Amino acid sequence: MTPARKRRLLIVSTIILGVSGAIALLFFALGKNMNHYYELNEIAAGEAPINKAINIGGLVEIGSLKRQPGTLKVTFNVTDLQHRIQVDYEGILPDLFREGQGVMAKGLLRNDKLFIADEILAKHDENYMAKEVKAELEKSGYYQHTKTTSITTSQTQE
After folding, report:
1. φ, ψ (nearest 5 deg) of residue 81
2. pLDDT per position as a tens digit, 7-36
3. Would you say 73 and 32 are in contact if contact means Cβ atoms under 8 Å apart?
């Protein structure tokens, strides 16, 4: 091998090794900061990691919301209508948060029955519109509330 070829091979090998090292470090760093979403049935089956940052989601169980007087601490259950998990959270809840509403929680799973949340996100459907915006649009005439009708089976067969 000529000296020029050896030098070229060394440069190409160094570049490939450097890029591979950078990619490995990137995936290692991202892997520690990623929050994976787990469904409640996966948590109940023991598939979710304990004491690791994860995301969970479901409905806030009706009648489960308990606030600790004088603090921002709340406890509630998240359910998928088959399984439930208790969520402890300290902080200001989103405006759309309420019982029976969809919710996402980010935090640590302590065991299969307790989740300590760092952040709560309330879900809403695609038809959601803030009260103030809706009132303003109704006042200006741009918003028209459409009435939904249900069709029965006998009506669809005609």
Report:
1. 75, 0
2. 999 999 999 999 999 998 888 877 666 678
3. no
Flag whether 16 is in a domain: no
Q: What is the pTM of this model?
A: 0.62
User: What's the domain range around 104?
Assistant: 36-122
Per-residue confidence at 138, pLDDT binned at 50, 70, 90?
A: confident
Domain of 46, CATH number, reads 2.40.50.140
* Contact status, residue 57 vs residue 78, Cβ threshold 8 Å: yes
- Read off the tokens for 114: 């307790």
Sole residue written with tokens 């709340």: 74
Evaluate whether residue 153 is within a structural domain: no
Q: Domains in the chain: how many in total?
A: 1
Does position 152 have pLDDT exceeding 50, yes or no?
Answer: no
Residues 62 and 116: their CA atoms lie apart, in Å, by 19
Which residue stretches of 34-150 are H helix? 40-44, 131-140
Look at residue 60 and tell me if it is in a domain. Answer: yes
> What whole-number percentage of the chain has pLDDT above 70?
77
Q: What is the pLDDT of residue 3?
A: 87
User: Does residue 57 sit within a domain?
Assistant: yes
Cβ atoms within 10 Å of 77's Cβ, excluding its own:
20
